[in-house]
């Protein structure tokens, strides 16, 4: 019995597999659960990856569209550039043809130039031979032009009439009746203003003779003239002009002209009016200021009483016998 009981317990222990089965199922469940978790994680990972891939794909598609537009634009530009290149090539071919023609013409021109150089050298030799002659002729021409210019200037100067300075014998410049003594203001005018004017005119025109002409009105001058005896002495300065006595208007005009000449000669002695000759003349009552003959009138006429200053070049005297 005891032995059968031990055998029975041993058999029960051998055929009691439930705990092992339970452990096996637990392990299997854990493994399956692990696989499920792995499958879930894989699914989530794949979904995230798919979303990112879809986003990248969308962006890539947009980029592709932009690239296609860019490529289309570049293809159009390439087409335009290709047309331009064709046009440029056509122009280049045309220019190349022209260049070839020009090169041929240049070679022909160089050949002609070589021939012309010999002629130029010959002409240069002839030019060098004639240059000295030309320079000599040019110098002569310049001298001739200067002479012509000087002659024209001289002719123009000679043709132009010098002025006539008229000093009216009235007012503060009026002589006393029958006298040739210069009034003080007239004497100052002659010594200053008239001297300046004479120098100006003579320097401009090369005049060497100044004629002083005394003119009177038609009033009769009565008395005995002593000009025949005293005039030369007064002109030489040995006798004062107050010693002269007029016997006519001709005498009186000459006396007054001589008084002006003597005043100018005083200035000349001080160094001015060099090389100028003075001559005194009388117009008496013969001429009006216009130069016409005066009427036969014995009335007082202040406008006719005047001293005229005339300028003339010193000419060569011609003796007629």
Question: How does this model look, in words?
Answer:
It contains five helices and four strands. With 321 residues, the chain is an alpha+beta fold. The protein has a domain at 163-312: OmpA-like domain (60s Ribosomal Protein L30, Chain: A), CATH 3.30.1330.60. It has a four-stranded mixed β-sheet. The radius of gyration is 69 Å and the shape is elongated.
The helix/strand class is: alpha+beta
The percentage helix is: 55-70%
DSSP helical segment count:
5
- And the CATH topology of the domain at 163-312? 60s Ribosomal Protein L30, Chain: A
Short description:
The chain is α+β, with helices and mostly antiparallel strands and 321 residues long. It has helices at residues 2-15, 18-159, 184-205, 227-236, 249-269, and strands spanning 165-168, 209-215, 277-284, 306-312. It has a 4-stranded mixed sheet with strand order 1-4-2-3.
